[in-house]
Amino acid sequence: MTRSFLGAVLASLLLTACAGSLTVEQQIIATLRDMEVAAEAGEHFEFMKYVADDFQGQLGSMDRQGFHRFMIFQINQHRRLQAQFFPIHVKETGEDRAAANFSLLVTGGGGLLPESGRVFEVDTEWFKDGGDWLLSRADWEPVELPDIPSVIDYQ
Question: What pTM does this model have?
Fold first, then answer.
């Protein structure tokens, strides 16, 4: 028991020491992953703790409260909401400021398998508040995918 306790303490200290040396890109990606986990678990309050009070979305047409309502709607509409990020590109834009853009596949449904899915192109802006990165702006558009012909001949 003492060894496992010491191991846990040592692992915790190592993770804490490493956290200070993460790049801005790694920190933003870690925050996005935390938001993904919260959304998939249906924990909208946990998700929103990463969103700045002065958040603006969809070219300024959505504030933080509107974004929160949007997330609640998405979580309630799809019992099994899932998200998959495609390459996340992060660029530092100033001291304690960054931008990230990525593609996002969102699927949802009531059962084990997704009933619907959509790919979005997402552009975001972030600022560091203390030790946390907060989402200050997000704009997203659905991506129109080409129709894929069926390879099965049903005749």
Answer: 0.78
